[in-house]
Task: inverse folding
């Protein structure tokens, strides 16, 4: 069988970024401040093409009600909020006051603070307090990997038919193929991927994009 795929080198990745929607001055400033303020943790920030991808998906699906699990310094929430209608609402869950304080400033600078609500504390507890009826158009999961399945089970019943769940890091640098013993994060991602693939409530597709992105449309 013919296998039509390529290896994305750093040079090719740079080409992809140059030929897509570029980061604007605000996003570049956020990226720079994140790298300066968070050190090695800056790798949790999504890449430029990922930010453009989230904004486009949000626009294409007409999102008005969205949830983000794992906000960090705000690049992904900024991307989602920018794609929403003016009356849209994004609820973000995170545990870090330090990192999300950066996000808050950039939401305000972007004129989007009125669309975004941040709830600090354990995300599972926060999700459980959301309305139980299916009302969400989009959910983005990018937090602690061991809790992905918990977040999934809390979110799916709250998603409208046709809504979209996006889960990040589902290829986990390729470690999902050969998990090491006692690697709980990788084992959690492997279990999550299997559960999503077998879930009759959704139509999933896994993309070899960034560190692996799973899109799941609610039936």
Result:
């Amino acid at each position: 069988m013919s296998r039509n795929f390529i290896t994305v080198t750093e040079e090719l990745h740079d080409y992809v970024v140059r030929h897509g929607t570029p980061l604007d001055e605000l996003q570049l400033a956020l990226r720079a401040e994140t790298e300066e303020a968070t050190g090695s943790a800056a790798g949790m920030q999504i890449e430029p093409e990922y930010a453009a991808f989230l904004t486009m998906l949000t626009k294409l699906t007409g999102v008005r009600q969205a949830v983000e699990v794992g906000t960090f310094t705000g690049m992904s929430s900024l991307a989602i909020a920018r794609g929403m209608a003016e009356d849209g609402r994004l609820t973000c869950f995170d545990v870090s006051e330090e990192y999300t304080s950066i996000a808050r400033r950039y939401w305000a600078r972007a004129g989007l603070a009125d669309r975004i609500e941040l709830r600090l504390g354990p995300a599972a507890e926060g999700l459980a307090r959301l309305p139980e009826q299916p009302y969400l158009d989009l959910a983005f999961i990018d937090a602690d990997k061991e809790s992905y399945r918990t977040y999934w089970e809390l979110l799916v019943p709250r998603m409208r038919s046709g809504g979209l769940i996006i889960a990040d890091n589902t290829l986990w640098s390729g470690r999902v193929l050969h998990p090491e013993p006692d690697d709980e994060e990788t084992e959690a991602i492997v279990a999550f991927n299997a559960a999503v693939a077998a879930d009759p409530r959704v139509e999933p597709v896994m993309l070899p994009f960034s560190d692996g992105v799973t899109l799941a449309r609610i039936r």
Summary: Helices lie at 10-18, 25-38, 48-60, 75-83, 97-109, 123-128, 148-155, 184-198.
